[in-house]
Specification:
5 helices; two-stranded antiparallel sheet; 24% helix; alpha+beta
């Protein structure tokens, strides 16, 4: 029995417009069309750990987008591509699910990310899915600690809506600044040139 096709999701591929796209936008769209997803990498800087996330898994496979925090960008990129393959093969990912095949020697657990963090952390996904934002899961692996976005913290006074990142605290809606005031994630939630792969 054939699986019924999903209705268009309203993303930039399902509802194309005459909007002018830059080379990074075109690469993201081509990756989603060709592979089913694109990985956005945000390198660590100024005591703020790096993170990476997928764009396209919801469009292509109906699964939540995936994110990882605090590992090297190369490791997160590889892990998120493995999770993309899992999405392609299984078409299902649930919070609490563990996968031993993503990081050698460790189980990676999927945890729901509080939607209040989507604009600050997953701006390019919001751009792609306009105006809806898909569910996002954090793939937590070795060294994962309470306080990662969307996870409860064991620290007094911390919660899923105000996690610890690096030495400071991030709040939903935070615009992260880079050297010389260049935003790591812009006010519009988009990632600047050179941050995507």
């Amino acid at each position: 029995m054939d699986e019924e096709p999903r209705p268009p999701c309203g993303c930039r591929l399902c509802a194309r417009s005459d909007e002018e796209l830059d080379e990074h936008d075109r690469k993201l769209l081509a990756d989603v069309e060709r592979h089913g997803w694109h990985v956005v990498l945000i390198p660590s800087q100024d005591n703020i750990p790096g993170w990476a996330f997928t764009v396209g898994l919801t469009h292509s496979f109906g699964t939540p987008e995936q994110a990882m925090f605090g590992l090297s960008t190369d490791v997160m990129h590889t892990c998120l591509n493995i999770l993309g393959e899992v999405a392609r093969e299984n078409g299902r990912m649930e919070p609490g699910e563990r996968n031993p095949d993503v990081l050698t020697g460790y189980d990676v657990e999927l945890r729901a990310v509080d939607p209040a963090w989507h604009a600050a952390l997953f701006g390019y996904a919001q751009w792609f899915y306009r105006p809806q934002t898909p569910r996002s899961y954090s793939a937590s692996g070795p060294g994962a600690r309470a306080g990662s976005p969307g996870t409860p913290s064991s620290r007094s006074g911390s919660s899923a809506s105000s996690p610890s990142c690096g030495r400071g605290r991030l709040r939903p809606g935070t615009v992260l600044g880079g050297p010389g005031g260049t935003p790591t994630v812009g006010r519009d939630g988009r990632v600047p040139a050179g941050s995507c792969s």
